[in-house]
TrEMBL record:
Keywords: Amino-acid biosynthesis, Lyase, Pyridoxal phosphate, Threonine biosynthesis. NCBIfam families: thrC. Pathway: Amino-acid biosynthesis; L-threonine biosynthesis; L-threonine from L-aspartate: step 5/5. The keyword Oxidoreductase does not apply. PANTHER family: THREONINE SYNTHASE FAMILY MEMBER (PTHR42690), THREONINE SYNTHASE-LIKE 2 (PTHR42690:SF1). It comes from the Bacteria. The lineage of its organism: Bacteria, Pseudomonadati, Bacteroidota, Cytophagia, Cytophagales. It catalyses: O-phospho-L-homoserine + H2O = L-threonine + phosphate. Its cofactor is pyridoxal 5'-phosphate. This is Threonine synthase.
Length: 432
């Protein structure tokens, strides 16, 4: 796979180079030169394949020229150690549960695949790398877990102080070893800006082998395509077109869904469901993309005012507003509506939706209600509800069970280094 920059001012690179660089030097985003389509025979027998088997076929098509099949299989087995089950919630409405990995959020797919891929390339080259990652909550935990105790890898995580849940913070700050957490006085956008500036800084580039782990890294998108195929495999027997509703912040997850679509996955429509940070739903309705400062919500992993994957999303969905708005419906909900959705699903089905998932659930229901065609609706559940326990309990007015894995975490002691949102401070820290 050759990758080009969306800004066309940097040379094309190999997969290995794109994975370690994260961002091209022109500050664009790496995109695959072309998206291969999978053969009809794959879709005819997909219902007989497991998630791992699907993952192997999809990654062979995308990156089989770069990595031999046996190694790809090893990378997948190392990364995807958990399932992505499809569960019926209401008639014609299914949830694709993406929270069965170690950090209990869907970012485990991207982060663990990226970690396995980087480890594979590092084995061959014996170089050392320093991973910088900004997180609005869940990326950090997944990346930290994915790279924890990996030889030759140092991980620095930046998170916005007071803007992640207790459990998320513990996932970021209690591993130790090769993982360091920086508690930034600012927003997620500040954290993301610090990381971007570090990558463009000549002094830092000269001193460290910096690598990015944010959703801008192309290796995080690839594994996120796997579970869209898996949902299709599990639901194909119903014989109706699929609609996917994706709770979105930086739009990596939705971009991956559209990669799956471009590879031939039959999908009727995607729903870009957001909270009050709704620049993409606004774009889809007006044709104008206008980044805004991020606003705090109870679905904090989606508090993104300037979604970094937007250029990819647009290119993948045909390159212009007309093509994008035909494939993707935008919809958004404020916190009160999100809480209503959590309560409604709990009262009517006893299913517990985390605030992010609740937005996708409501977006699916409201969108499908306006469609004439009969469809099978799938909303993506991006995190386990217990990661947002105080919000959940306050919303439902009841105490809720916490999985043991998360309960143990809460007893551990946080270790984080305070940091301002000023790039000079961050740079001085890294150089010290
Ligand atoms: C990161 C995250 C999202 C947003 O995913 P994007 O790929 O950035 O759009 C949604 N929900 C949860 C729980 C997340 O952690």
């Amino acid at each position: 796979m050759k990758l080009y920059s969306t800004k066309h001012q940097s040379p094309d690179v190999s997969l290995e180079e794109a994975v370690f660089r994260g961002l091209p030097p022109d500050n664009g985003l790496y995109m695959p030169e072309y998206i291969p389509t999978l053969p009809l025979s794959f879709f005819e027998t997909i219902q007989d394949l497991s998630l791992s088997e699907i993952a192997l076929e999809v990654s062979k098509a995308l990156i089989g020229d770069d990595i031999p099949e046996a190694d790809l299989k090893r990378i997948i087995d190392q990364a995807i150690t958990f399932d992505a089950p499809v569960v019926a919630v209401e008639p014609d409405t299914y949830v694709l549960e993406l929270f069965h990995g170690p950090s209990m959020a869907f970012k485990d797919f991207g982060a663990r695949f990226m970690a396995a891929l980087m480890s594979y390339f590092l084995e061959k080259s014996a170089k050392e790398i320093h991973i910088l990652v900004a997180t609005s909550g869940d990326t950090g935990g997944a990346v930290a877990q994915g790279f924890y105790q990996t030889p030759g890898v140092k991980v620095t995580i930046l998170y916005p102080r007071g803007k992640v849940s207790d459990i998320q913070e513990k996932q970021l700050t209690t591993l130790g070893a090769n993982v360091t957490a920086l508690e930034v006085e600012g927003t997620f956008d500040d954290c993301q800006r610090l990381v971007k500036e570090a990558f463009l800084d000549a002094d830092l580039r000269a001193k460290f082998n910096l690598a990015s782990a944010n959703s801008i890294n192309i290796s995080r998108l690839i594994p996120q395509a796997f579970y869209y195929f898996n949902a299709y495999a599990r639901l194909k027997h119903l014989g109706k077109p699929l609609v996917f509703s994706v709770p979105s912040g930086n739009f990596g997850n939705l971009s991956a869904g559209i990669i799956a679509y471009r590879m031939g996955l039959p999908v009727r429509k995607f729903i870009a469901a957001t909270n009050s940070n709704h620049v993409v739903p606004d774009y889809l309705s007006t044709g104008v993309f206008e980044p805004k400062p991020s606003q705090e919500t109870i679905s904090n992993a989606m508090d993104v005012g300037n979604p970094s994957n937007f250029p990819r999303l647009l290119l993948l969905s045909g390159g212009e507003w007309e093509t994008a708005k035909d494939l993707i419906t935008g919809i958004w909900y404020d916190d009160a509506q999100t809480q209503d959705a959590i309560r409604h699903a709990y009262d009517s089905t006893a299913y517990l939706l985390c605030p992010h998932t609740a937005i996708a659930y409501q977006g699916l229901k409201d969108t499908v209600a306006g469609m004439e065609e009969e469809v099978t609706g799938v909303f993506l559940s991006t995190a386990h509800y217990a990661k947002f326990l105080p919000t959940m309990e306050a919303t439902l007015g009841t105490t809720l069970p916490v999985p043991e894995r998360l309960a143990e975490l809460l007893d551990k002691t946080k270790e984080a280094i305070p940091m301002s949102s000023n790039f000079a401070d961050f740079k001085a820290y890294l150089l010290s």
